[in-house]
Amino acid sequence: MTRIGDFDVLPLCLGGNVFGYTADRDASFAVLDAFHGGGGTFVDTADSYSAWAPGNSGGESETIIGQWLASRRPENAIVATKVSQHPDFPGLSAANVRAAAEASLGRLGVDRIDLYYAHFDDPETPLAETVQAFGDLVSDGLVRAVGVSNYSADRIREWMRLSREQGVAEPVAIQPHYNLVHRADVEEHIAPVAAEFALAVVPYFSLAKGFLTGKYRSADAAGQASPRAAAAVSYATPKGLALIDAMTQIADAHGTSVAAIALAWLRIQPTVAAPIASASRVDQVVGLLDGARVDLAGDEIAALSELSAGGVGSA
Question: 1 pLDDT exceeds 60?
Fold first, then answer.
């Protein structure tokens, strides 16, 4: 288990971005059941998921998760959600943060959000106002803990300073884009500030939009049906494919999936608490859960780190 704020979770977070998008209600329930049945407790979503999909308006993922929570009443479930990108609740003004949180609580069917992230920085709203708004949600019992997503190191430090000045709850988690093929920003800038303030890093795009599952091994994969295929195959450079080959050998040695190896490498990086990975189908869940439990050997870790150093391409 790993610790984020005052709760313990398996060191893997199930991404809810696919619920109501590439996974309908029944498929989402099956994935959630398999994840929880395999020991998973931590689920990540956002109020904006999946407003981009035809026919959706935002909140679909939260609604499905809320229905699952009501149906299954799972023990120890921890749900994180985010604010700033829902079409009806854009930005991080105090009024918007409060209104969006109340809407998320309704969709999730809970009395308190376990972990509430500022999804993206809002340059139009004074940071002091946003910090106070999140602090008030904690004080009022609507939110258990606060996190920041897609914030620069400087802005995270400023948030910490303001929260201490205002005497409100400080963030406990950072959610950045981080994986084996996208390392530089987190390792150079975010990890140091996370270490400075003892913040848990909860990376998204842990599998590089599917590339680190080993599924996309040539540019020809761009024609596949997956919404992320075109982005994933931009990593299919000679260096990227050499990395996948090495991961495949390591996965075979451990009797697990390439995705599990990507997650196992990520979870042991400094300040990382629980990588986020999503699944649209039940058969994908076991490989993800393995990523929370597979222990890589020192030479395997070193080989993957060396092969991915400097990046392999960019999606």
Answer: yes
